[in-house]
Amino acid sequence: MQLKPLLLTALLCLSAPSFAQPGPKELHNIQKAISNAQTDLKQKQAAQRRAQAALSASLNALEKARRELAAITRQQNAAWNQLQKLQSELEQVKTEVTGTKAQITRLLAGHYKNRQPNSISLFLKNAEPGQKARYLQYIKHINQANEQVIHNLVKQQKELEQQEKAIDTELNRLKKLKAAQQAALKKLGKTRSTAQQQSNELNAQISNQTQKIAKLREDERRLNNILADISRRNTASRKAQAQSRKQAAQERIKKSNQAQKQTKQKNNTIPRGNLTAEDRALSGPDQSQGGSFSRMQGRLHKPVGGSVAGRFGQARSTGGTWRGVFFATPPSGVSSVASGTVAYAGTLGGYGNTVVIDHGGGYVSIYTGLNSIGVSGGANVGSGSYIGTSGTLPAGEQGLYFEIRYRNQPMNPLSWIR
Fold first, then answer.
1. How confident is residue 135, by pLDDT bands cut at 50, 70 and 90?
2. Is the pLDDT of residue 104 over 60?
3. Distance (Å, whole) CA 411 – CA 325
4. Key word Coiled coil present in the record (predicted)?
5. If you compute the radius of gyration of the chain from its CA atoms, what whole number of angstroms results?
6. With bands split at pLDDT 50, 70 and 90, how would you rate the model's confidence at 235?
């Protein structure tokens, strides 16, 4: 019975590294935050559509008010023309009243000069009989004319008062109507201005948020390209190591079989627990750095001092979500959370000065917003090694932004840090 191949297989199985997969809760938080950001953008777009509708309604109301004001102005012009006509008629009435007053004045003067109360009786008494009837008719016509003059004066004065009152009433009505319409027009103008301002502000907010989201996606794409390249190199390295281990194992098995054939054994089986020196020399594959890193969950030290100001999965004030953790701190030294190889050290658009450390096995840690970088690409760093100084993110936050990713999937760094 060949125990050595079975033993080697067991060692290979036991030595396979266990990788900590991103938790469903963490992925759910990211998806929820993205959904919230999209919902917020949709709400802003809906508010912008409502503002545009309000602006359109305001413009329509303003145009209607302008038409009404123009109609009032036309009415006012017509009333003014009517006023001119009434004033002309009024002047004519005043002239007639003046003439009537003159007639009455002459009549009163005649009566004043003739102070004999019985003068008409004496005049008729001394008149010839044939002329008395004619004189009486004259006197009757004179009295009727005098009465008519007085009646016309009273009538003309009433008409004068009525026309003046009508003119004043019409002018006051038009004045109030125009004032009310001008006030409404002013109010509509303010409403239109407010609606226009709100629409412009919403357009600006939507434009800014769209640009920020596009920029964040572009920044994320660049970082993902770097991480994808690291992942490809790690995959190739793992395949090469696995192939090397396989060949080494096959070579050891081959040598072991040859040794068995050359050794005479009394029994065909090997007692349990009675391994040869050759058996004890067999060993499983070395644990990779990734396997070592995965066992450090909850035991990593913080990369920098300061307080947590942005948590994994939370929405950012500048748009998007935190896919790592942000430590708010004045400029301070930044250290690697674990040993590894510097895969990238330089400026990355949207992240500022950035260091990416490959810990093997698909695990990387990312440090962004650095004021200065203290390592170079390809350098090996140990746990706690100085890699730079914290500074300010491009969005203006002062501190350090830190991520941990497994095979390019963001993980919650706070679950790894003690």
1. low
2. yes
3. 10
4. yes
5. 54
6. confident
**Nearest Cα residue to 306 out of 244, 409, 399:** 399
126 by Cβ neighbours in 10 Å (0-12 / 13-18 / 19+) ranks as: exposed
- pLDDT 10s digits, 168-209: 787 788 788 788 878 877 877 777 787 778 778 878 877 777
**61 to each of 178, 186, 301, 318, how far by Cα in Å?**
17, 12, 65, 38
Counting other chains too, the contacts that 267-272 makes at CB distance below 8 Å and 24 or more residues apart are: 268/1, 269/1, 270/1, 270/3
Residue 342: per-residue pLDDT? 95
User: Are residues 160 and 94 in contact, defined by beta-carbon separation less than 8 angstroms?
Assistant: yes
Amino acid code (one letter) for 364: V
Q: Higher confidence at residue 375 or residue 172?
A: 375
The per-residue pLDDT for 23 is: 47
Q: Does domain 27-216 have CATH number 1.10.287?
A: yes
- Give the residue from 409, 324, 416, 321 showing the smallest Cα distance to 369: 324
Domain map (residue ranges) of the chain:
27-216, 300-415
Residue among 331, 327, 320 nearest 413 (CA): 327
Average pLDDT over residues 275-297: 53
User: Within 13 Å and on the Cβ side, how many CA atoms surround 41?
Assistant: 19
CA angle, residues 272, 278, 281, in degrees to nearest 5: 100
What the block records as the tokens of 357 is: 């450390």
Amino acid (1-letter code) at residue 164: E
Phi, psi (degrees; rounded to nearest 5) at 61: -65, -40
Residue 354 backbone phi and psi in degrees, to 5? -135, 140
User: Phi first, then psi: what are they for 297, rounded to 5°?
Assistant: -60, 130
Residue 127 DSSP one-character state: S
Residues 143 and 113: their CA atoms lie apart, in Å, by 17
Question: Among 3.40.50.2000, 2.70.70.10, 1.10.10.10, 2.60.40.10, what is the CATH number of 300-415?
Answer: 2.70.70.10
The answer to whether 336 and 365 are in contact (CB under 8 A) is: yes
List the structure tokens of 237: 């390295």
